[in-house]
Write a structure and sequence with these properties.
Blueprint lengths: L4 E3 L6 E3 L6 E5 L5 E7 L5 E7 L2 E8 L2 E3 L9 E5 L3 E8 L7 E15 L6 E9 L2 E8 L7 E7 L2 E4 L4 E4 L12 E4 L23 E2 L3 E4 L5 E7 L7 E6 L4 E6 L9 E4 L2 E2 L2 E7 L2 H6 L2 H4 L15 E6 L1 H5 L9 E3 L2 E3 L12 H13 L4 E4 L30 H11 L2 E7 L4 H17 L4 E5 L14 H16 L3 E4 L15 E4 L7 H4 L9 H5 L33 H10 L4 E3 L4 H5 L2 H9 L4 E10 L3 E8 L5 E7 L4 E6 L7 E10 L12 E8 L4 E6 L4 E11 L1
Parallel strand pairs: 25-28, 25-33, 28-29, 29-30, 30-31, 31-32
Antiparallel strand pairs: 1-9, 2-8, 3-4, 4-5, 5-6, 6-14, 7-13, 8-10, 9-10, 10-11, 11-12, 12-23, 12-24, 13-22, 14-21, 15-16, 15-18, 17-20, 18-19, 19-24, 20-21, 26-27, 34-35, 35-36, 36-41, 37-40, 38-39, 38-41
Helix pairs in contact: 4-5, 6-7
Length: 707
C-alpha cells in the first residue's frame, strides 16, 4: 500500500554566519505552517512558527545542560542541509483507520560550536499539514563520546494567553483530573492531589503532555512528544508571565543527571499539533507518523477484542485480589486462613467466559490469579513478593485456559509488578513463556506504587527503558502489552504494534472509590482532546449499575448509561472492556446489545463535531463488517446536536439502532433513563438528538438495502 514520493524543495544549502543574524524557513506541504529558524548574534539557535501567517510560536531558543561537559546552547555556526519532501501511505495492522497518510517536508540543520571543542548538534524539523515535529541528533564526534544531560532547554514561547487543559507535571503518575485555566493561571504547586494515589511527585510548576490549548480565534494547539526511547519523559515548565513552556525532563534522586546516552543518538521528537478546530486534533496522525515503521512484521497473532473480567468487582469490594495466604519460610503458603472473598477462582472466571462467549466478547481478564497480593502495596520490601507463574490454590490455570479455548475466548493475563522492577525483569521470560504455553496473547501489566529501586520515578529514563524493553521482549513470545501506571504513549505502537493500549489517565476505577467523588461528567470530553491524542486508552467503559449503592453509597459513575455506551466509540482502544459485573449486564439486555455489536478495529474514523471539554461526536467504520458505529458524549451541560450521516455510502439504505438519553435522564438524578429507536437512514439523513447532563448517544449503523 505504500506510494512513496521523495522530492527536494527549492531551498539552497546556507551557511549561517552568526554576526549577520541570518535565517531560513520550511513550510508544510499545504503552506499553512511555516517554521523559521535563525541564529542570534551570540550564535544561539532559535525558531518561530506561523500558522496561516499568524505567529503562534515566537522566538524560542534551544539548548542542553550537562554534568560532564559545558552547556551546549550558543556560539554555533550552522548549515542547512537540502530539504526533502516525503509523501507516503502506510497501513496500520490495527487501529483507528486502515491507511495513514504521512506527508511532510523535512530539513536538517547542522550546528557546530566555534570553540576548540567543535561540538556538533543536528536539529531536524518535519513540518506536516497538522503540525510540527523536531528533534535533536547528537552525531558521532571526536570531542564528545557520552553525555550526562541535566536539562534540555527547549522553549515554546506563545503569543496569547490560551485557554489551557492541563494536568500537573507529575514525575510519577498521570492520574489527575484536568484543570481548565488560562495559560497565565496554571498553578500546579497548589493543585489538589487526590489522597488515594499510591505515588505522586510534582516538583515544580510544570504540566504533563499532551497539553491542549485553544485560542481566541479558534486555533488549537497540542504539545507532546513522539518516539520516547532511552530518554526521560518531558514535562513542560510554565512561565505564566511570559506565556511560555520550557522542556523539563523527569529526573532521578539517584543521579545528578536526567539522561545518560552514548553518542550517536537521537532524542524524542518535540511535537506541536496545530489545527483550526477541535475535531481535527483527534484526526491528526502527527504523533504516529513521527515514529519509525513496524519492526515486528506480522502481528496477526494479536486480535483486537472486547473483554470482560475479574476487575470491577474488586474495586466495588465484592471480592478481593488476594487469597489470604501467609509467608512461611520465605514462601507464600495456604495455612487454611483464606478469607473466602478471593475473586479469581476457577468457578468465577468460567462464569465470565460463558458470558463472553454468548455476547461476542473475545477475552476475559483475570486479576488476582497469582500469589503475592497479600503484600503488594504499602511496603518498602516489595521485591520478590509477586510470582508471575504460580496461581492461587483456587485457580486452576490449565483448566481455565482449556475451557476458554473450547468456548472461543482468550484469557488475558495480568502482571501487577507493584513497581518492583527487578523482580518483574527477572521473571519476564518465564512469565511470557507461560502465556505462550497456554495460548495467551495479551497481558495487562501494572506498576502501582513508588518505583523500586528507590529514587527512580515512573517517567524517568530508567522506567522508560523498563516499559519499552518489557514490550519488546513480549513480542518475542507473541504477547501484546496493555500497561497501566505507564509511561505516556508517544506513538511507539507504529514501530512495535504489540504495544496495544495503556492507562495513563484517571480511569473508571476512580468512580468506585475516589474520596473526591470520582470523575466529573466533563472528564472524558477533555480526555478525547488531550490524553487520547497520544494513543489508545484502556479506560474500561460500560458500567450499567451507575449508582452501585449496594456496594458503596458514597460513590457513583457520573454519567448516564447512554454515555457509557458511547465511550466504546469515542475513546479508542483495540482492547475494550465491558467492565461491569455479569449480573448487571444480564439484567439490561437491550443496552447490552450495543456492546455485543460494537467493533474495536476500524478502517475509517470521522470526528463529526466537538469542543474541548464540552462534547464530542465520533463515527467509526468496522474493518470486518463495514458497519458504522457512532458515539457522542457531553459534559455536565445538556445540549442539542444534529448528526449528519453524509459519511455513509451513496445509494444505500441502512438500519440505525439508536441508544439515547431518555427524557428525564441526568447523570445524577436519573442516569439509567435510556431510550431505544430503530431507524432507516441514508447518507442524506440528519438526526437531531438531545444529550442530557452528563449524557450520551450510541448508534449502530448496518447496511441493509442497496437502492
Amino acid at each position: 500500500m505504500k506510494n512513496c514520493i521523495y522530492s527536494f524543495l527549492l531551498l539552497f544549502v546556507i551557511t549561517f554566519v552568526s554576526c549577520d543574524v541570518p535565517s531560513s524557513e520550511i513550510a508544510s506541504p499545504d503552506q499553512n505552517i511555516a517554521v523559521k529558524f535563525h541564529l542570534s548574534e551570540k550564535g544561539e539557535f532559535f525558531y518561530t512558527i506561523n500558522y496561516k501567517e499568524k505567529n503562534v510560536i515566537d522566538t524560542s531558543y534551544v539548548g542542553f545542560e550537562f554534568t560532564n561537559t559545558a552547556p551546549l546552547h550558543k556560539g554555533f555556526i550552522a548549515q542547512v542541509k537540502k530539504p526533502k519532501e516525503v509523501d507516503e501511505i502506510w497501513e496500520m495492522p490495527w487501529g483507528e483507520q486502515l491507511n495513514v497518510e504521512n506527508h511532510y517536508n523535512e530539513v536538517s540543520i547542522a550546528l557546530q560550536e566555534k570553540t576548540d571543542l567543535k561540538r556538533k548538534l543536528n536539529i531536524v524539523f518535519r513540518v506536516h499539514n497538522d503540525g510540527v515535529g523536531f528533534r535533536y541528533e547528537f552525531p558521532e564526534q571526536d570531542n564528545l563520546k557520552e553525555v550526562l544531560i541535566s536539562e534540555e532547554n527547549t522553549e515554546f514561547n506563545l503569543t496569547e494567553d490560551y485557554k489551557t487543559f492541563w494536568i500537573p507535571g507529575d514525575w510519577d503518575i498521570y492520574e489527575h483530573l484536568y484543570s481548565t485555566t488560562k495559560l497565565s493561571e496554571i498553578d500546579t504547586r497548589n493543585y489538589k492531589v487526590n489522597s488515594a494515589l499510591a505515588q505522586t511527585n510534582i516538583p515544580e510548576n510544570a504540566v504533563n503532555t499532551p497539553v491542549t490549548l485553544v485560542g481566541k480565534n479558534g486555533i488549537h494547539l497540542s504539545f507532546h512528544e513522539a518516539a520516547l526511547v532511552d530518554y526521560s519523559g518531558m514535562t513542560l515548565k510554565v512561565d505564566t508571565d511570559k506565556l511560555s513552556f520550557k522542556s523539563s525532563l523527569v529526573g532521578s534522586n539517584n543521579t545528578d543527571y536526567k539522561v545518560k546516552r552514548t553518542l550517536p543518538f537521537k532524542t524524542p521528537w518535540r511535537t506541536i499539533q496545530i489545527t483550526d478546530n477541535a475535531p481535527d486534533l483527534i484526526a491528526s496522525k502527527l504523533i504516529l507518523n513521527l515514529n519509525e515503521p513496524n519492526k515486528l512484521g506480522d502481528v496477526s497473532w494479536f486480535t483486537p477484542m472486547k473483554y470482560t473480567g475479574v476487575w470491577w468487582e474488586m474495586h466495588l469490594g465484592k471480592s478481593s485480589w488476594d487469597y489470604g495466604m501467609e509467608m512461611v519460610d520465605g514462601k507464600w503458603t495456604d495455612t487454611g486462613k483464606s478469607h473466602g472473598k478471593h475473586g479469581a477462582t476457577t468457578e468465577n472466571v468460567k462464569r465470565f467466559i460463558d458470558f463472553s462467549a454468548k455476547n461476542n466478547i473475545g477475552g476475559v481478564l483475570v486479576e488476582g490469579w497469582n500469589t503475592g497480593w497479600e503484600r503488594w502495596i504499602g511496603f518498602d520490601d516489595r521485591e520478590g513478593v509477586f510470582d508471575f507463574v504460580t496461581p492461587y490454590p483456587d485457580y486452576n490455570l490449565e483448566e481455565v485456559t482449556a475451557y476458554a479455548k473450547e468456548k472461543g475466548v482468550e484469557i488475558i493475563m495480568h502482571h501487577e509488578t507493584s513497581a518492583a522492577t527487578e523482580t518483574y525483569e527477572k521473571q519476564q521470560d518465564a512469565a511470557y513463556a507461560l502465556m505462550q504455553k497456554y495460548g495467551m496473547h495479551a497481558v495487562k501489566s501494572g506498576y502501582v506504587g513508588k518505583i523500586l529501586p528507590k529514587g527512580e520515578f515512573h517517567h524517568g529514563q530508567y522506567m522508560v527503558n523498563q516499559y519499552n524493553n518489557a514490550a519488546i521482549k513480549a513480542a518475542k513470545y507473541q504477547v501484546a502489552v496493555n500497561a497501566h501506571e505507564p509511561i505516556k504513549a508517544t506513538g511507539l505502537r507504529r514501530t512495535y504494534p504489540n504495544i496495544i493500549s495503556r492507562e495513563g489517565l484517571r480511569g473508571q476505577e476512580f468512580n468506585a472509590w475516589s474520596p473526591d467523588g470520582g470523575n466529573p461528567p466533563e472528564h472524558l470530553s477533555i480526555v478525547a482532546f488531550t490524553r487520547m491524542l497520544a494513543g489508545p486508552i484502556d479506560f474500561t467503559p460500560g458500567i450499567f449499575n451507575i449508582k452501585f449503592d449496594e456496594y458503596k453509597k458514597d460513590n457513583q459513575v457520573n454519567t448516564t448509561l447512554a454515555h457509557q455506551l458511547a465511550l466504546y466509540v469515542v475513546i479508542y482502544s483495540p482492547v475494550q472492556m465491558a467492565a461491569d459485573l455479569v449480573e448487571h449486564y444480564e439484567a439490561n439486555p437491550k443496552p447490552l446489545e450495543f456492546i455485543k455489536d460494537v467493533g474495536v478495529d476500524w478502517s475509517e474514523t470521522k470526528v463529526l463535531n466537538g469542543e474541548v471539554g464540552d462534547y464530542v461526536t465520533i463515527a467509526r467504520k468496522e474493518r470486518k463488517t463495514n458497519n458504522w458505529f457512532l458515539g457522542s458524549i457531553t459534559d455536565e451541560n445538556a445540549r442539542d446536536l444534529e448528526v449528519d450521516f453524509s459519511f455513509l455510502d451513496d445509494n444505500t439504505t441502512y438500519e440505525a439502532k439508536v441508544y439515547k438519553d431518555g427524557k428525564s435522564a441526568h447523570f445524577n438524578e436519573n442516569p439509567l433513563d435510556i431510550e431505544f429507536e430503530t431507524l432507516r437512514i441514508t447518507k442524506k439523513s440528519k438526526l437531531k438528538v438531545h444529550l442530557a447532563e452528563g449524557g450520551g448517544l450510541a448508534i449502530s449503523v448496518k447496511k441493509k438495502w442497496n437502492n
